Amino acid sequence: MTCRIIIADDHPMFREGMLRTVQRLLPEACVEQAGDLDTVLEMLKTGGEVDTLILDLRFPGLTCISQLGELRQQLRRTTLIVVSMVDDPQLIEQVMAMGADGFIGKNIAPEEIGQALLAIRQGEVLVKFAPSGLLPLDTNTLTARQQDVLRLIAQGKTNKEIAKALDISPFTVRIHVSGLLRSLNVPSRAAAAVKYSASL
């Protein structure tokens, strides 16, 4: 029987890579792609039951982690797999608490992603990612958006205030903060602010 799989990611290259991985592992699957949450929700209304939803965490339309819980309620019989660059254990724990069946880091090898997908679809509750940013990096290696977030952290702004200033969701700010702490190799926002001030 053909199973229906949706790959939901806003990066076409990653979607294409994931599509090839899924087609190689599950040649009988009907694989569809979506670049934002509205498209996913439309797809869920048509075309029959979805066997597996592979969803990026930093995804247009996904503005807070509670939406994962809503998707879980809506898709009780669907395997929900979150695939992301995020490697913050606390955030991943929250993702799993919202009912995700598994979490796969985008920074692991393609064959490992494939093995993890199969294991999760077969009922294994799996979190597989490779912690990155083991070497201390200076602020010049940060993206422009990360530098904006870091500058506002150094000014003592809260996530909510940063979100308002940059016109992004607090959830997205949390993901940027998580990436910042990793990139700067520091344990806290305060330490990141100190490191930022020292670099000026």
TrEMBL record:
Residues modified as 4-aspartylphosphate: 56
Example of a GO MF term: DNA binding
Highest rank taxon of the organism: Bacteria
Coiled-coil stretches noted in the UniProt entry, renumbered to this chain: none
PROSITE patterns, per database record: HTH_LUXR_2, RESPONSE_REGULATORY
Keywords: DNA-binding, Phosphoprotein
Ranges where the HTH luxR-type domain occurs: 135-200
UniProt record, GO biological process: phosphorelay signal transduction system; regulation of DNA-templated transcription
Domain Response regulatory per the UniProt entry, residue ranges: 4-121
Name this polypeptide is given: DNA-binding response regulator, NarL/FixJ family, contains REC and HTH domains
